[in-house]
Amino acid sequence: MSDLLFVRDHIQPPLPAPHRTSGVVLWLRTNLFSSVPSTIVTILAVLFLYWIIPPLYGFLIGDAVFSDPEGLRGEACRFEGVGACWVMIQGRWNTIIYGFFPNSELWRINLMFVIAIVLLVPMLVPKAPFGRTAALLFFLVFPVVAFILMSGGILGLRQVPTAQWGGLTLTLIISVIGITVSMPLGIFLALGRQSKLPIIKGFCVGFIEVWRAVPLITVLFMASVMFPLFTPQGVTPDTLLRAIIGIVLFESAYMAEVVRGGLQAIPRGQFEASSALGLSKVKTMVFVVLPQALKHVIPGIVNTFIALFKDTSLVTIIGLFELLNTVRSAARDVNWSSPTSDITGYVFAGFMFWIFCFGMSRYSIYMEGRLHTGHKR
Amino acid sequence: MKKHLFSVAVATSVLMAGTSVAQADLLDDVMERGYVQCGVTEGLPGFSNPDDNNEWTGLEVDYCRALAAAIFDDPDAVRYTPLTTAVRFESLSNGNVDVLSRTTTWTMSRDTDLGLSFAGVTYYDGQGFIVRSADGVTSALELDGAAVCIQSGTTTELNATDYFAANGMDASNFLTFASRPETVQAYIEGRCDTYTTDASGIAGDRTKFDVPGDHIILPEIISKEPLGPAVRSGDTRWFNITRWVLNAWLGAEELGVTSANVDEMLESENPEIRRLLGVEGDFGAPIGLSADWAYNIVKQVGNYGESYEANVGPSTPLGLDRGLNALWTNGGLHYPMPIR
Amino acid sequence: MTAGVQTRREQASAIINDPKFRGLVYQALLLVAVVALFWWLGNNAATNLARQNKATGFSFLNSAAGFEIGFTLLPYDRASSYMQVFLVGITNTLLVAVIGIAIATVLGFVMGVARLSKNFLIRTGATIYIEVVRNTPLLLQLFFWYFLSLNALPSVRQSIVFGDFVLNQRGFSFPMPILDDSFVWVAVIGVLALLAGFFWRRFALRRSEESGNRYPVWLPVMGIFIVPTAVAFVLSGTEVTFDAPALQGFNYRGGFTAPPELTALMMGLVIYTAAFIAEIVRAGIQSVSYGQTEAAAALGIKEGDRLRLVIIPQAMRVIVPPLTSQYLNLTKNSSLGAAIGFPELVSVFAGTALNQSGRAVEIIGMTMLVYLVISLVTSVFMNWYNARVALVQR
């Protein structure tokens, strides 16, 4: 037996990769230090983070005032180097969420929220049961129930005028009505714009372009100042209703343009195929074209919803107390005035808006993935 | 799609149900509706301001309450609509509110051009300036070139411009804001050297400052600002109600009738008091009200003097002396027209 | 049932089912409905106006406004007419829109590229910026910036002074050159030189395309512009004096002051719009296939030039249409300046002037018309530009 003959009789375990090409080091090399400029930028970015994070932490958490055991209100946030005055949000919580709704009637708003969530969950979660029923209830029954709960005046509920609606509740009411109404309106306008009939097309084009050209704030001004001028003598719609009408008309023009993009993406073959199958024009639209077109433009539709949700903050300017306005008025309240009241209010309101908008945009990405049935180009 | 449409229709129709109707005779509408719609400020202490329970209080709110007391015998039958200066007149002409009791100055062009009628004057005011005491300014004439925060679209804005022009001062740093809270906020933040509005308003706003003592109100009063409730022109009966409610409110003070002694006063021998309280003659019927309309005002709300003391008088944070707003018998300007 | 009736019925149903006939009926119905609606609205407006006893008409445009405007580019004082208020509002709106669009475009492109950066920190930073800014209301951001700038800046007496440049709560003041009459000649020469430089650029670019060699562009253009202008400046004997801001009483006077309202509005608009532009740019760049980058690398184009010369020009056709709507959005959003006291069109005309004159219909109508015109002009220009950058199929 010679030692020269060597036959490996077992498999060697693999050697670890060179440490510079795996794990944390690889990640650092490719993501932070891939080149000289990249390294410089990384260093600058780290310096920036070092500069921004400690004060940010200090403001939001470290030096912030979370509790007010002695009932000092604004005084509790009056010291050198104070951070966010969260006790203000706590103290004015009811106004920020419910507006000027009478305290004894707040259960009505809570009940409305609960019903809305109960209906929305099966509607939005694709695998949940009763989706269709929930949608029907949400669009047909819920508006009536919600209106009765908010407004009262019947069934022994105390009447609450719209002037007392406010806060997050008002923001949500305006957005939900705006979204549900501007969507079908936008689809009709988009279809009208595609029409071969010149007058219908001209009307839709004119409507869409005029609304898209003017700022929402002038639309709201018009709704609040001029709208009553155009209604018959004696009929004066409610301020809130006017604002909602203004927002709906405005956003439906944007919605129409989004939907038009989807309609244009549908190839002619779809129309020809459905007419070969003997479907009428209406059926072609409802069962063949629109489902595909709307699926194509989900991101655009959700972006319009997000824009609408953010735009509700503009009703502040015509004197409605939605979320932003209630937060600002809380900060101006003499009892709550402190060096950081304003900025706390802005951060909080921004966070509330952000949660809803970011949630909507994530949900749209999720739905886009689910509805992706292989038509994507 | 149908379900969308239907929900739209439902939502619209139910919201429409909550709309108000303003016809030629406003009193009938108000009676039917069961409450008065009153346009107020977005929040000015002493005049119209929501308190911690979101109940509106103030001198001008008390006028609205007096109106409601006269019509319904219930001072709480009022709905308050906070209005910005931008929408106040349109809201009134459109019938959004029945009466505008919102620190509005009675001027000729508003009477003639805007189609309003002023029922009278609830508060004789004048425009003043507030400055930081640290700036060492003692007279409005020293404000040459100062940054001035003003609420846009007000008589205040025009008066300040006139005043600066008349005294050859540089007005290039005027800064106007759409709403009152923003105007005050900008002054507090130091964006402006001075903030100008009706002197009573400044006194009200000053109560909201962190350290009120750091700010002084300059002695110059640069304009006449008779503030009063306004209604739409054309409805004589409603106009008369608003005017005479004001006169009865003031008249009660003149005659010494207060909420405390009004029931005793029913027995009074003084024919003026007897007429005011509806014991003698019926002055309610011609304007569509009950005979005891003025009794209800005093009983439920009190007289003008009581409201003044409770809301803006020397014992309140505003600390405004009666001054011009005393009755004529005390050297002031309030001169209630006789009820007979 | 006789045969005649049958045919008539058939004819009738043929007409009813005829798409052309149906189309005509639908259109006629819509037309009647629209005309009736407008007639009804107009009629209501007329009755309501008559009932309100209010004066109407455009004659108020000639009467004196009687109020001051804090920031104007045009000559304006209290005796100026409402028409001048209107013009001041338009120029202020356009000022914000033009400067805002320029800065937002640059920031948007930078952020869009940063979003695709290989560097983790930059990529994440850009993503956070975009997701935060896009998902909160602009009005809130404006309030935030305005409040922050008033709080962060020193009071007048503690101004940050750097030479003749002054920064405080009342704004950023800098000296304004005061020019005498002979400067006109310098200006004329300068414009001519600029045109000459522009022609050189076209010439140089064409030459480099034909020959494949790179010709210098920017240095010669600068030379062509600066040298004659400087010579003209010296020869004409123009004297330039500076009107520097100086503390006088309450405020710095003289020079030019950009108030904090303008700065806050500009910051808010730029930061907000740039987040949207960044997403558009990212989508545009991603729409260009990666093979283009590899091909450019294979051709030996430098890494920095690949994006600029190969990718972005191809991405432009995807970027330009949505970019146009962002430009229009920025212009429209400038109307939110009304909320923080910047005297742009809506604030000064649809706000103050409307209040002082009470002419709601006329003023709102004029305001909306201005935005319509701006929107039309921008669309026409961007369509022209889009046609230029569109992919030429060979």
Radius of gyration of chain A: 29 Å
CATH class of the largest domain in chain B: Alpha Beta
Largest protein-protein interface: A-C, 54 and 54 residues
* Broad structural category of chain B: alpha/beta
CATH superfamily of the largest domain in chain A: MetI-like
Strand content of chain B: 15-25%
Unreliable segments of chain A (pLDDT under 50, ≥5 consecutive)?
none
Summing up helix and strand content along with how strands pair, one would put the structural category of chain A as mainly alpha
The DSSP helix count of chain A reads 15
* Tally of DSSP β-strands of chain A: 1
Major β-sheet annotation of chain A: none
Which second-level CATH architecture of the largest domain in chain A applies? Orthogonal Bundle
In total, how many domains does the architecture of chain B comprise? 2
Please trace the helix and strand order of chain B, writing H or E for each element: HEHEEEHEHEHEEEEHEHEHEEEHHHHH
Q: What's the CATH superfamily of the largest domain in chain B, by name?
A: Periplasmic binding protein-like II
Q: What is the residue-mean pLDDT of chain B, rounded to a whole number? A: 86
Q: Count the DSSP helices of chain B.
A: 13
* Number of domains as seen in the coordinates of chain A: 2
Spatial order of the strands in the main sheet of chain B?
A: 11-10-12-9-13
Shape of chain B: globular
N-C termini distance of chain B: 66 Å
